[in-house]
Amino acid sequence: MRVLEILEKRGAILHGHFLLASGKHSDVYVQCQRAFVYPEDTAFIAKELIGKAQEQCDIKNIAGVVSPALGAVIIGYEVARQLDKPFLFAEREDGKLTFRRGFEIQQNGHYLTVEDVFTTGGSTLELINLVENMGGLVDYALAVVQRQKEIALPVPHDSLIFLDLPLYEPENCPLCKAGIPLVKPGTKQQQKTSS
Ligand SMILES: [Zn+2]
């Protein structure tokens, strides 16, 4: 449980009332970047992720590591650095993940994907499709934290920490009903809910 201790120590697990990117509300928000501020912690977390990958795939055959920008770039890079493999990140352009900057996927190359948090796994799913559309293969998908029990990915996947956290639709969120101010993480603004 050392990774969970690091995340808690660095304030990466926040308690309150949060508006998530999916539009749902939650009483916990995971901000892994708070831990990635510290290179030593990032290196430790990456090493743990590599341990998971080594149980599942042949690291020698891995062509590279890919992550979606921006939240997973630091941890993805650190995993690649420790494996001595190339690292690529995909960015959103008009809402769609794409490789810019002349990044290329090796044809029939085997890749690992690294995310900071799986909520629904949506970004990783999009990344897997992107890599495969460009002629690569994804052997394994990793995340530091998984927020939900069920995530649907077409490749084997795992995370270091599993938090089975309830997500609420705004219209039946108990935190809204209790009048707790809603916070959109990443902004300084706090919105008062009116429901
Ligand atoms: Zn709410």
UniProtKB/TrEMBL annotation:
Q: What is its EC number?
A: 2.4.2.10
The record's annotation in SUPFAM superfamilies points to: PRTase-like (SSF53271)
Where is orotate annotated to bind?
119, 147
* Record keywords: Glycosyltransferase, Magnesium, Pyrimidine biosynthesis, Transferase
Positions bound to 5-phospho-alpha-D-ribose 1-diphosphate: 115-123
Reaction catalyzed:
orotidine 5'-phosphate + diphosphate = orotate + 5-phospho-alpha-D-ribose 1-diphosphate
- Self-association and partners: Homodimer.
Q: What is this protein called?
A: Orotate phosphoribosyltransferase
Q: Which organism is it from?
A: Coprothermobacter proteolyticus (strain ATCC 35245 / DSM 5265 / OCM 4 / BT)
